[in-house]
């Protein structure tokens, strides 16, 4: 597997510059700024140190092989195979990490899911997708927080989840688009096969180094009483917040916290993320890059199909990658799809969703 551009000397130089900052006497006077510098330092070291460890492991394997060959000891063969397999796994993991070199790839993200065509079926499908991404995040040890949740009798109409961790956005950015479900409906008394759609949007969590200007006069702020779970306090006070950015028409809302102040802060972070994506889309002139939400959530616009009947298969229509173990995928095992998309992007292969059924 080949990785992306990797400039070890440049990264080493950046590490030395960052370490010099930490040596300053007043470094910890601003705890938040210091913590960010330390996190940046950890990320930088994480780009080069694993490669050096891998090279050392390979040298150790060579030494073990030479010793076994000279001594005629065949017992080391199994150990060498195990070490090579471990090296291959680490190599693949680091190669994927090298592909995440975008401005915001290292950041966390806001993941939003909307149910589309299909009524109750689609709401159930939106819930299943949210569970899939939550399980994926839990597998990787990322922090999760539900920012907004609009429930429906059969599942959810929409939800926004904040996922915090290193390179979350870089990994998940390719998940934006329409996801299609084909199965025998549990809501159909006649047990007929149904097709449902839900859309996934991915927006990066922005840090202080990325500026997005939001003028107060361009913002309309509404407060309302939050419904659903959260206790009597949530339901009896106007703690939920909705921001409308008038020039773009972008609307964000948050009702996850009991405090209106905390909901306002989260709402502003989400709005900054969406505006960043909006302006990036305008600059790049690529509606498919950040603008999957502009597509209809219906037939012909899907990036991936999940088939439960009459057979089981999950297929990405952009990369043509597919697997048959759909239950593992729904339990969060989606790294193969993420990696294949990143590899296709790096190789310059077309990764636009197609309009054909592709035998599904």
UniProtKB/TrEMBL annotation:
GO cellular component: cytoplasm
Residues the record lists as N5-methylglutamine modifications: 232
Prokaryotic-type class I peptide chain release factors domain location: 225-241
Modification after translation: Methylated by PrmC. Methylation increases the termination efficiency of RF2.
SMART domains referenced in this protein's UniProt entry, alphabetically: PCRF
Source taxon at top rank: Bacteria
MF term (GO), any: translation release factor activity, codon specific
Subcellular location: Cytoplasm
PROSITE patterns per UniProt: RF_PROK_I
Family annotation (Pfam families): PCRF, RF-1
Keywords: Cytoplasm, Methylation, Protein biosynthesis
Entry similarity comment: Belongs to the prokaryotic/mitochondrial release factor family.
NCBIfam families: prfB (TIGR00020)
Function (record text): Peptide chain release factor 2 directs the termination of translation in response to the peptide chain termination codons UGA and UAA.
PANTHER family referenced in this protein's UniProt entry, alphabetically: CLASS I PEPTIDE CHAIN RELEASE FACTOR, PEPTIDE CHAIN RELEASE FACTOR 2
HAMAP family: Rel_fac_2 (MF_00094)
Protein name: Peptide chain release factor 2
Gene: prfB
């Amino acid at each position: 597997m080949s990785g992306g551009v990797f400039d070890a000397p440049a990264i080493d130089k950046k590490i030395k510059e960052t370490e010099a900052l930490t040596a300053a006497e007043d470094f910890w006077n601003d705890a938040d700024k210091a913590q960010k510098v330390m996190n940046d330092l950890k990320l930088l070291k994480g780009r080069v140190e694993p490669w050096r460890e891998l090279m050392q492991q390979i040298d150790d394997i060579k030494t073990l092989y030479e010793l076994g060959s000279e001594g005629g000891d065949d017992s080391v063969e199994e150990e060498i195979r195990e070490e090579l397999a471990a090296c291959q796994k680490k190599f693949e993991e680091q190669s994927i990490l090298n592909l995440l070199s975008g401005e915001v790839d290292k950041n966390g993200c806001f993941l939003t899911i909307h149910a589309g065509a299909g009524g109750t079926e689609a709401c159930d499908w939106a819930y299943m997708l949210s569970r899939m991404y939550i399980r994926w995040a839990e597998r990787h040890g990322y922090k999760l927080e539900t920012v907004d949740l609009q429930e429906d009798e059969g599942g959810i109409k929409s939800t926004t989840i904040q996922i915090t961790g290193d390179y979350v956005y870089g990994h998940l950015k390719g998940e934006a688009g329409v996801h299609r479900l084909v199965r025998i409906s549990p809501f159909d008394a006649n047990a007929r096969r149904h097709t449902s759609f839900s859309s996934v949007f991915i927006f990066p969590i922005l840090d202080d180094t990325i500026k997005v200007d939001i003028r107060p006069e361009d913002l309309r702020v509404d407060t309302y009483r939050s419904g659903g779970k959260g206790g009597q306090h949530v339901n009896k006070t106007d703690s939920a917040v909705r921001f409308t950015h008038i020039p773009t028409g972008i609307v964000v809302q948050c009702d996850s916290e009991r405090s209106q102040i905390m909901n306002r802060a989260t709402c502003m972070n989400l709005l900054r993320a969406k505006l960043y994506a909006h302006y990036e889309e305008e600059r790049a002139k690529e509606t498919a890059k950040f603008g999957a939400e502009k597509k209809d959530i219906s037939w012909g616009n899907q990036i991936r199909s999940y088939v439960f009947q009459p057979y089981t298969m999950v297929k990405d229509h952009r990369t043509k990658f597919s697997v048959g173990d759909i239950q593992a995928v729904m339990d969060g095992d989606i790294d193969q799809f993420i990696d294949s998309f990143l590899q296709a992007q790096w190789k310059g292969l077309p990764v636009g969703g197609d309009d054909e059924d592709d035998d599904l």
